[in-house]
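A sample follows:
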Amino acid sequence: MVLLLTGWLPIMSVSADDGGLTRAGDVVNVSGPWFVGDAFELSVLVHNNASHDESASMKLNFSGTEVQGSQQLLIAGNSAELRVGHTLTESGTVDFLWSVLDSDAEVSFQGASEILVEPSQSLDVEAVSVAHDADAGFSLTWKATLSSGKQRQVAAMLSFAAAGESTGSLTIDVLLEPGERTLTHTLGQAPTDAESIRITLLPEGWLAVGVSTDSTSIESAASGLGVQITGPLDPVSPAIGEAVDLDLEFANTGALDVGTGRLILIDGQKRLLAEIVTDSVASGTTRNIEIRIESWMSTSTTTLTVEWHIAGRILSDELEVVSANSASPSESDSIDVPWGDVLVGVLAALGVVMSLRMVTVWRSRPTEPARRFSRRNAELKASQAPTSDEKRDIFCPACDRALRVPTDYSGQVKCPSCRVQFSAVGDSSSAETSPSVETSPSVEIESTPEPEHELSGSSLDDIIGCPNCDQVLRVPYDKRPAKARCPSCRTIFHALAE
């Protein structure tokens, strides 16, 4: 005979007690009835009849699956309880074997039995209703249904949900009896973006059929709320330090009551002008209040902002205010120019400009070699300058070609035909010509070819004299050796560095 319910299990002995470890009682199981997913546990009281200490353990075999409990030390002549457990995975009538082993893993005694395992119990949850209180926030009434069998421990998780994500979770441990049970729990104020309340039941230490969860939609407590300035300030244009009164309107057109809030007034410079706590506002109502600013702080046109901090949100309204200390439109057309400051600025700017100009002039003044060059060049030009526009004819002594030169010109002349250079004497009555290679300045009738032999000159700085006419010219020292052309006699020569 097999006992299938909670209580004592009869033993079907397979081997007799050996006189060492013996049973001091029946095999007991106190966890029935059993369902898939439950933990099945056996226990037996064992006595040590030997004259020495002995270790013992209990082993369980379910359809070939063996589970062995922990070993316990039995003092000689004493008794101890041995336990072994197994999680049930199959429904129906299940046979099993049990045995007690000594310290050498030898079977001291054993037996066999069977139990009836039922399918897992089902668990269901339903969100019944939602209530809202302006101060306490949201509360949820929910119902749990547990199928017949054993009482079960569950964890009820209640949370707000926004965009599919849970927030503000509340977890409650509940012991359920088979059947239906209705409970109510308060979650508090909902986040501003909350769309629903979700409830989930989680089995603790047992296996339930299906997922036990439900949700219900909610309306945000902040929906339909608003605040606005309903009239001008009193006075309309306050002076600095003056007390100011302001009329405001609070509206709640939503479906939920809202609790207390906080109202603050700030100006354009973010200075706090006033702050009060607002009373609760019932659904579908409007409230009007007057708030006082004890001391106005602005001396110009500013933006007065009203902020209502309520139900996790900040609602606001604004008003442009022209302070009594602000300039009037007629005054603003006549602008007071600080002429003293303007004059100081202009003089300072002129001083900077003059200083820069003096530095520029000083830096651009000619050096001593340049001044010598300028004087000699001026003297040379003065000596070469014609005194009359009249011309006379002279003849080349080599090819007898007639050439026209100024009447009073004396100096070298180069024939453009045969390239012979000769001297001409300035005389209005006669022209004495002779071939010459003198180095005095010459008149260039046409383009003068380069000399047949090359000359050279050198110096220790950028100023160098022409080796043909001693004209001073500038050839950069760091560019030498280089060819240079005299601006006076057109002689090309080599400029060398000493």
